[in-house]
# Entry
Amino acid sequence: MIDLHCHMLPGIDDGAPDLETALQMARVAVADGIEITACTPHIFPGLYENTGPGIRQAVAALQAELDKAEIPLTLTTGADVQLCPDLVAGLRSGRILALGESRYFLFEPPHHTAPPRIEDQVFASMAAGYHPIITHPERLHWIESHYETMKRMAHAGAWMQLTSGSVTGRFGKRPQYWSERMLDEGLVHILATDAHNLRNRAPLLSPARDAVAARLGEQAAIDMVVTRPRAVLENVPPSRLPDTVGLPKQAATGLGFLRRLFKAA
# Structure
């Protein structure tokens, strides 16, 4: 499996606080079957002033420590990118890192407030030749009122990435409900850990992979944790990759959704 979203680099954002924690997170990932991890610290102006060159250096240093400790995990570069007016310019200059130097990048919307013109930013990046992967939409506080926005972006070609813990209920009933709805409607492209620590945000991907396999079939799960993530790192165009799958429309839009939502409220 390949994890495209992990905050493992020690001491540069709200992820691993030190090297020992990072090494232990790597061991947990390997034990779970993860072979490649993208280290994706936040790029958040005013809070986490990380840049492409600094992230590359930190990834190389951590990879050396993993190799020294004989932990068989391959690291690659990336960032969890917040909305900013110079997004495309930052990607072009290398100040903002795409995943593994590819056309794909992680785009993290604000958690608490729907940003104005988010679709414009997403489509502008696509017009410039980049491909946004929108991280953890199921956990956004405003997804209820802007779910149609997410659907429009997905149908226009942006990719949606769910956090593994949301799928398995680790973040509670509400994110699990939206995860299941997006899965059933065929809107999900990638699963990732978004791991931050060893306590409640460990780098575990297989439980969510198994949940998706039980819901949508084995191939759908493989595509979310192997096929598309590997294609991202190999910079394969989205047009050459398998389409997402969901449940038949009647099953995916039935009253079960409403019942689960009321329970989650």
